[in-house]
Design brief:
Layout: H1 2-18, H2 26-36, H3 43-63, H4 66-86, H5 92-106, H6 114-131, H7 133-149, E1 151-152, E2 155-156, H8 166-169
Antiparallel strand pairs: 1-2
Length: 196
């Protein structure tokens, strides 16, 4: 869930506000339009400005000593978010979206796994600003096709889901008993297919 929020939430917001307002309830659209009335930027520019600001704060807090870095990250985000809303550079809804996206990226266990998420977020915002929800679907299709085409140490990255292997699929969702795994995967070792 944190992965989906960290990659797709700003692009979903941009697509809903720019193209698909009919998907939101009327009361919510009225509230969002009131907060966006004074904002001089389109939603995509607003999202990119807020995302770049959060990324700069994150990089600054990572390079400072740990006690100061955490304080700078939290206080800086609060101060900059409040100042951006008061100066009519960003709507309160966008500040909430960007803060939720940052929290979603903090859920991931390894810090190094957040780097690809940062890179994926920007093309997804551009595609959603250009094509709406269809742009999000196109981007996720490209990502999944790419992940299906790569391998790690000779094993397909999405194994056993892609390529579909019925022998390995019994271990994909629920773990089967150990005695059911007599054969090795077909792509692992051509000479010794039996485990025992």
């Amino acid at each position: 869930m944190g992965f989906i929020i960290a990659t797709s939430l700003p692009s979903i917001y941009v697509a809903l506000i720019s193209f698909h307002q009919q998907l939101l309830p009327a009361d919510l659209i009225l509230d969002i339009s009131k907060t966006r009335a004074q904002i001089p930027f389109p939603p995509v520019i607003e999202a990119l400005l807020m995302e770049i600001t959060i990324e700069l704060l994150r990089e600054a807090s990572a390079r400072l000593p740990s006690t100061i870095g955490q304080t700078i990250g939290i206080v800086g985000a609060i101060v900059i978010g409040d100042a951006a809303v008061r100066a009519n550079l960003a709507s309160p809804t966008m500040v909430i979206i960007v803060a939720t996206t940052a929290i979603g990226s903090y859920v991931l266990p390894h810090y190094s796994t957040t780097f690809p998420l940062r890179l994926l977020r920007f093309p997804m915002v551009f595609m959603s600003a250009t094509f709406g929800a269809f742009g999000i679907i196109i981007t996720w299709t490209w990502i999944i096709v790419h992940l299906c085409s790569i391998s790690s140490f000779g094993y397909p990255y999405f194994s056993p889901l892609a390529p579909m292997d019925s022998d390995l699929f019994k271990d994909a969702v629920l773990r089967k008993p150990f005695w059911r795994f007599k054969q090795r995967p077909k792509f692992s070792n051509k000479r010794n297919q039996s485990r025992w």
